[in-house]
Amino acid sequence: MKRFLLAASLGLLFTTQCTLADTSSFTQGREFTSANDYQVLSLRQRVAPENTILNERLASLLPTLMAESGLDMWLVINREYAEDPVYFTLVPQPTFAARRTTMLVFHRKADGSVEKLSINRYPLSAPYESVWSGGDLDQQWQALAQEIVKRQPNKIGINVSKHWPVADGLSSGLHQRLLDVLPKEYHARLTPAEPLVIRWLEQRTAAELAVYPQIVSLARSVIAEAFSNKVITPGVTTTDDVAWYLRERFEQLDLPVWFMPYVNLQRAGVACDADSPYCGISGIIQRGDVLHTDVGICYLKLCTDTQEMAYVMQNDEATVPDGLKAALAKGNRWQDILTAEFKVQRSGNEVLAAALAVTKRAGINASIYSHPLGFVGHAPGPTIGMWDNQGPTAVQGDWPLYANTAYAIEGNIKHQLPEWRDQHVQIKLEQSAYFDGKQVIYLAGRQLKWHLIR
Question: Which CATH number fits domain 30-41+206-453: 3.40.50.720, 3.40.50.300, 3.90.230.10, 3.40.570.10?
Answer without folding.
Answer: 3.90.230.10
